[in-house]
Fold this protein.
Amino acid sequence: MKNIDFSKYYDDAKFYGIAAGIILLLYFAYRILNRATKSKEEMRVVEVDESNLTLTPTDAQLIAENLLSAMNRFGTDNAMLYEEFSKIKTKEDAILVSEKFGLKKYDGYGHSMFLGQPKNLKGWVNAELDKSWTNFELTESEIQEILTKLNWI
């Protein structure tokens, strides 16, 4: 039986493995940087007419925290989501709540410390309501009411 020298193939495999690893690393770095750029574009400065506010900054902060709580786990507490959105009466209220919500990393199941794409309130709610299998608790009119208020942001 003849012995085969695999050492020459080992060097080639090592080179291609390192090259593939570098390409994957560059690809994931590009994806992460591209997401961060898009997220910054989602946040825009909007002037708020304070005479149209029906919420105090404290109320808006509480609503933002409750909205995060409703979406921040596997599944969505749709009843709480609708209840909190029903407290938003004007476009200015929606903008204030969105500002209080800020940008939070979203990984498809909720807030993620390391993974996920930074999204504002509109991004979070759109992602949560996009999962048609989670919307059995809300009627179509309730979903439309939420989406209308999101369009104010």
User: Anything to note?
Assistant: The chain is about 60% helix and 5% strand. The longest helix spans residues 7-42.
